[in-house]
Amino acid sequence: MDIAIYLHALTALFVIIDPIGAALIFNSLASNGDKRYRYIMATKAIIISGLTLILFGNYGETLFFHLGIDINSLRISGGLLLFFTAFQMITSDIGFSNKGELRDISVFPMTVPLLAGPGTLTLSVLLFSQDMDATGTVAVSAAIICTLLLTFVLMLVSKNLKKIIGKTGDEILKRFLGVILAALAIQFIYDGISNLMLK
């Protein structure tokens, strides 16, 4: 395994995935769930995200080329999905459905657009598209797995934050993170539109 490629990929992935922020958002989304529910949601989100990033990184560019889809379209669509999630975090409790039942948050919004969103998918494509041998591919894959494993651990312990900051603090944090997510969503949309206009 190429250590230099691994460290480069690990740094870039850590910045864009933001394991700490993702864990805090996960806690807000699953705050009303029990330990088993949280474990299942975290496990599913990490496995699906890992497979998505590795497969998309290897084959995404080719797929988009054949479909005639610009990578910036992914940024815009991902930004819209992220904004929808942020809006719900700010205005309502999305831990439960209208029937009061726990819902599956592993695919949406945890995997897409949070962990394997447009920015992460684009980065994954760029990392795998570099001219490198099999050891480089293994290094990038290992970086993805390590970053997601760290995120997984932080997700499992994120509930302790609620005990420290209390119910009021948790509500404030949930709304605040929603605002941050909304800003990130607008940035994704802005970048996608800007890049398309420059072409």
Automatic annotation (TrEMBL):
Q: Which UniProt keywords apply?
A: Cell membrane, Membrane, Transmembrane, Transmembrane helix
**Recorded superkingdom:** Bacteria
Q: One Pfam family of this protein, by short name?
A: MarC
Parts of the chain that traverse the membrane: 6-27, 39-56, 76-96, 108-128, 134-156, 176-193
Question: Which InterPro entries does UniProt cross-reference here?
Answer: Multi_antbiot-R_MarC
NCBIfam families tied to this protein: NAAT family transporter
Q: Give the similarity note.
A: Belongs to the UPF0056 (MarC) family.
* UniProt-recorded name of the protein: UPF0056 membrane protein
Which species expresses this protein natively? Psychromonas marina
